[in-house]
Write a structure and sequence with these properties.
The protein has 128 residues and is mostly helical. Helix content is 66%, strand content 0%. The radius of gyration is 21 Å and the shape is rod-shaped.
Length: 128
């Protein structure tokens, strides 16, 4: 993982808005270009440098994806628990493994959320 991607990921999980992340990344790039030294040598490890910024309240796109997937799983589990009391046997539709789809959606959502935050490029500060 490149320094910029690692720094952007660590800033996102700290809740810093994308526009601020773009500004921070522009400053890092400018400093790197001006001094000619790698950002890691100048600022230290990306995780440690990100800790210098105060935690924000914004949620990253990956957090939102994870939350939606977990919420969908919980709705499904609730349906599995409640439908027998309504006289509907959900096992006719999903088979005997009634909780496996909920687990798959939850794990898929966590993975998709992580990859979204980790691999999404930082927008330039002029676009943000």
């Amino acid at each position: 993982m490149t320094y910029e991607r690692d720094l952007a990921f660590n800033l996102r999980i700290r809740g810093i808005p994308e526009c601020e992340i773009a500004e921070i990344m522009a400053e890092v790039r400018a400093h790197e270009a001006a001094t000619g030294t790698p950002a890691k040598d100048e600022f230290g490890a990306a995780q440690e440098y990100a800790k210098q910024f105060p935690k924000g309240k914004s949620r990253s796109r990956g957090t939102a994806i994870t939350a939606v997937a977990v919420a969908a799983s919980l709705v499904y589990v609730l349906a599995v628990v409640v439908t027998p009391f309504l006289g509907v046997d959900i096992r006719e539709s999903v088979g005997p493994m009634t909780l496996l789809p909920a687990l798959a959606v939850s794990l898929g959502g966590v993975l998709a959320g992580f990859l979204t935050d980790c691999l999404r490029p930082v927008s330039s500060s002029s676009q943000a």
